[in-house]
Amino acid sequence: MEVQVRDNDVDQALRALKKKMQREGIFREMKMRRSYEKPSERRARERAEAIRRARKLERKRMEREGY
Fold first, then answer.
1. Is there a contact between 37 and 46 (Cβ–Cβ < 8 Å)?
2. 2, 18, 42, 46: which has the fewest Cβ within 10 Å?
3. Which alpha helices (H) appear in the chain, and where do they start and end?
Protein backbone atom coordinates (compact mmCIF):
# COMPACT_ATOMS: atom_id res chain seq x y z
CA MET A 1 0.00 0.00 0.00
CA GLU A 2 1.40 3.35 -0.99
CA VAL A 3 0.47 6.94 -0.24
CA GLN A 4 2.30 9.90 -1.71
CA VAL A 5 3.18 12.92 0.42
CA ARG A 6 2.55 16.15 -1.43
CA ASP A 7 3.91 19.55 -0.39
CA ASN A 8 5.38 18.04 2.81
CA ASP A 9 1.83 17.51 4.14
CA VAL A 10 2.40 14.37 6.21
CA ASP A 11 -0.87 14.73 8.14
CA GLN A 12 -2.93 14.52 4.96
CA ALA A 13 -0.91 11.51 3.79
CA LEU A 14 -1.48 9.77 7.14
CA ARG A 15 -5.23 10.39 6.90
CA ALA A 16 -5.25 8.93 3.38
CA LEU A 17 -3.26 5.89 4.54
CA LYS A 18 -5.61 5.25 7.47
CA LYS A 19 -8.63 5.54 5.19
CA LYS A 20 -7.13 3.01 2.76
CA MET A 21 -6.26 0.63 5.60
CA GLN A 22 -9.78 0.93 7.02
CA ARG A 23 -11.31 0.22 3.60
CA GLU A 24 -9.09 -2.84 3.10
CA GLY A 25 -9.94 -4.24 6.54
CA ILE A 26 -6.35 -4.23 7.78
CA PHE A 27 -7.24 -2.78 11.19
CA ARG A 28 -9.82 -5.53 11.76
CA GLU A 29 -7.30 -8.15 10.68
CA MET A 30 -4.64 -6.78 13.07
CA LYS A 31 -7.11 -6.76 15.95
CA MET A 32 -8.09 -10.39 15.30
CA ARG A 33 -4.47 -11.54 15.11
CA ARG A 34 -3.48 -10.01 18.45
CA SER A 35 -4.44 -13.18 20.25
CA TYR A 36 -4.85 -16.83 19.27
CA GLU A 37 -8.29 -17.86 18.10
CA LYS A 38 -9.22 -21.50 18.54
CA PRO A 39 -10.42 -23.23 15.35
CA SER A 40 -13.86 -23.82 16.90
CA GLU A 41 -14.15 -20.12 17.81
CA ARG A 42 -13.07 -19.18 14.29
CA ARG A 43 -15.75 -21.40 12.72
CA ALA A 44 -18.40 -19.98 15.05
CA ARG A 45 -17.36 -16.39 14.26
CA GLU A 46 -17.32 -17.02 10.51
CA ARG A 47 -20.72 -18.71 10.69
CA ALA A 48 -22.16 -15.77 12.65
CA GLU A 49 -20.68 -13.30 10.14
CA ALA A 50 -22.20 -15.24 7.24
CA ILE A 51 -25.62 -15.22 8.93
CA ARG A 52 -25.32 -11.48 9.58
CA ARG A 53 -24.41 -10.83 5.93
CA ALA A 54 -27.30 -12.99 4.67
CA ARG A 55 -29.81 -11.21 6.92
CA LYS A 56 -28.54 -7.82 5.79
CA LEU A 57 -28.85 -8.80 2.12
CA GLU A 58 -32.37 -10.13 2.74
CA ARG A 59 -33.36 -6.89 4.49
CA LYS A 60 -32.04 -4.81 1.60
CA ARG A 61 -33.82 -7.03 -0.94
CA MET A 62 -37.11 -6.75 0.92
CA GLU A 63 -36.68 -2.98 1.20
CA ARG A 64 -36.09 -2.68 -2.56
CA GLU A 65 -39.20 -4.75 -3.31
CA GLY A 66 -41.29 -2.59 -0.99
CA TYR A 67 -42.24 -5.05 1.76
1. no
2. 2
3. 10-24, 26-33, 39-65
CA dist 28 and 35 (Å) reads 13
- Tens place of pLDDT for every residue, the chain, 67 residues? 889 999 999 999 999 999 999 999 999 899 989 999 999 999 999 999 999 999 999 999 999 988 7
pLDDT at 54: 98
Q: Cα–Cα–Cα angle for 19, 23, 27, nearest 5°? A: 85
Q: What is the residue type of 64?
A: R
Q: Over the range 30-56, which residues count as b (16 or more CB within 10 Å of their CB) and which as e?
A: eeeeeeeeeeeeeeeeeeeeeeeeeee
pLDDT at 66 (0 to 100):
84
